[in-house]
Amino acid sequence: MNGFQRSYPVHKIHLKKGKYYASVKVPQEIRHLHSEPRFRLSTGTSDKNHAERLARDRVVPEIHRRLDALFDQLDPFVEGLRDLLEQEGVDVAQWYRDGKITHRVSGEQTRAWQTLGLTLVNSNGKAAVLSEVWSAHDYPSLCKLVTGLGYAVPGHLLKFLSDEARQSIDELTAPRSLPTKDALALIQDLPPSLEGLKDVFIGAADKEHAHVKVAGNAAVLFSDLAHQHIEAKRSSDSQDVHSKRKKACEMFLKVNGDRALADYDKLHMLEMARFMDNDENGRQWAHASIKNYVSYTKQAFDFASELRGPNGKVLLQQHPMHDFKLSDYGSRSRSYAPFTTNELHELFLLEMGKDSRLLLSILVTTGMRLDEAALLTSERILEHEGVLSFSLVPDAEDNDGVKVKNRQSMRYVPVPDVIKPMLGNLGPGRLFSYRMNAEGKSENAASKELMRYIRQVTDDPRKVVHSLRGNLKDLLRDAGVSKEINDFITGHAQGDVAGGRYGSGPSMAVRKQTLDSIKHPWLQQSPD
Fold first, then answer.
1. In terms of C-beta density within 10 A (0-12 exposed, 13-18 middle, 19 or more buried), how is residue 405 classed?
2. Burial per residue of 212-229, b for 16 or more beta-carbon CB atoms within 10 angstroms, e otherwise
3. Nearby residues of 330 by Cβ (< 8 Å), 6 or more positions away
């Protein structure tokens, strides 16, 4: 568990005894290590705006560090099995509370019958319902439980165990038959209607089986491979991509089950696409989302073809997850439409808060993406090459200080003269107080607020906050601005840090002159 970057639920701010506190919900995995369902720390101030800034910059990061310390107390071997166990309804927290796990299995096949591949049938032809309580008090018995539930223990987890524990588990993987006396003990209480099955059961007991299955090179499970792949990509992925990669693999498992890598074929990927085209809730996923999920899942299989297992052989020599026809799956997204001139006038004539007016003004005059603007801080309004600019370029001390779509979007955007008076005397910290989510983004909260005003001037579903970006691109094009400059200003070119063989883009003076050449009469009017 050490060294992994974790994401936590969005924090909350609440007043308690005259001071504002920041709190974060304690994840279920470590709930037994904390006395309350939320981890709270005081901001030390009664000023809500100041508390929000302190929470973002100091208090919440400290809460995250303390939660990380709790995660580091967990057993990495048990945590590696958590998803498999919880999927079957096992209470993993019991391992930490009681030092063992007990789990009742009720159904057509309990461990003894399931191991031998038998299903009990009553005289009326219906499956007999049996019930057992399984118990695991150490690592070998926990591996037995996992195997009994129908899974293999991911091989990479064994590195967390002592040599003695690994040896015990290795001994349990050897094929063996069930002794006759044990088989007789299991069936001695069979009801009369099942007496005829005794001979069948004794015969099946002679077949070899293993108490524990471990996924090695020959039977690496997709869940094991996906975990390794996601963690290998974590340092280079953004929080957004990391989350999507994880959800894509979870969707593949949900639709197709957990199998050895070599047991999947091309249809399994298409079956995920079909499921997303009409899932169990009747939802049709967007075509773009289906393509992304297929792409992220395929990358996990690609990863297996570039990875050697413990025996030195490639995990997956080749796989069929290529050349998918996905055009028939998912709903098509509709392109955004820019606002008309009349709609822009009506929008900026509405009564609205100072934050909303400033954010809308920045969007329409600079073409910035919503999250780029909503996360701006006063420290990122600075002079660059002699021009007052919004900096969307990370500095050396804070590489996560900006949230842009990609490296090509890291750029300096001149502050247009028309909005300079609106900036006023800014205090330290964020320009806007829109709530940030667990990934440090605030576009959802900002969009929800701004759409309140947009829907007062148009009901067109294609006209949203992002439409303002299209408005500026159209205004630049109509003013005769070259596509190169247009794209650079709006973050569609190589950016100020991406580099490239064709230079560093238009100068700040050219960018400033370009933005100031665009007239925005809707900003010069005053609401009644």
1. middle
2. bbbbbbebbbbbbbbbbb
3. 273, 276, 277, 284, 285, 286, 287, 288, 289, 290, 291
- 117 near 204, Cβ under 8 Å? yes
Lookup result for tokens 């349990």:
172
Taken in order 148, 151, 157, 158, the sign of the CA dihedral is positive
User: For 312-331, b where at least 16 C-beta lie within 10 A, e where not — what string?
Assistant: eeebbeebebeebeeeebbe
CA atoms of 23 and 433, how far apart (whole Å): 17
* pTM for this model (two decimals): 0.48
Coil vs helix vs strand at 90: coil
Q: Which CATH class is domain 219-304?
A: mainly alpha
All CATH 1.10.150 domain ranges of the chain, comma separated, are 219-304
- Chain length of the chain: 528
528 residues of the chain, pLDDT tens digit each:
333 446 688 899 999 989 999 999 999 888 889 989 999 999 999 998 899 989 988 999 999 999 989 988 999 899 888 877 887 888 999 999 899 998 887 654 444 444 434 444 444 555 555 567 788 899 988 988 888 777 778 777 888 889 898 888 888 887 665 555 565 565 566 556 555 555 555 555 555 555 677 765 445 788 888 998 998 888 888 777 888 999 999 999 999 888 878 788 889 999 999 999 887 777 888 898 999 999 999 999 999 888 775 545 677 777 888 888 888 888 876 678 999 999 999 999 999 999 999 999 999 999 998 988 999 998 899 999 999 999 988 764 444 455 554 556 688 899 999 999 998 777 788 899 888 876 678 888 999 999 999 999 999 988 999 999 999 999 999 999 998 888 888 875 554 544 444 446 788 899 999 999 999 999 976 665
Q: Does domain 341-523 have CATH number 1.10.10.10?
A: no
Cβ atoms of residues 229 and 303 within 8 Å: yes
One-letter amino acid for residue 517 of the chain? S
SS3 of the chain: helix, strand, coil, percent, to 5? 50, 10, 40
C-alpha 253/C-alpha 247 separation (Å) is 10
Q: Which residues pair with 22 in a beta bridge?
A: 13, 41
User: 47 with 15: CB under 8 angstroms?
Assistant: no
Phi, psi of 165 (to 5 degrees): -65, -40
Ranges in the chain annotated CATH 1.10.443.10: 341-523
Alpha helix stretches (DSSP H) within 9-71: 48-54, 60-71
* Those residues with Cβ within 8 angstroms of residue 161's Cβ, 6 or more apart along the chain or in another chain: 77, 139, 169
Which residue carries 């090459």 as its tokens? 385
Q: How far is the first Cα of the chain from the last one, in angstroms, to the nearest whole number? A: 59
**In terms of Cα–Cα distance, which of 128, 126, 130, 133 is closest to 104?**
133
Residue of 225, 233, 219, 244 whose CA lies nearest to 321? 225
DSSP class of 305: T
Spatial distance between the Cα atoms of 450 and 445, rounded to a whole number of angstroms: 9
Contact 167, 173 (CB under 8 A): no
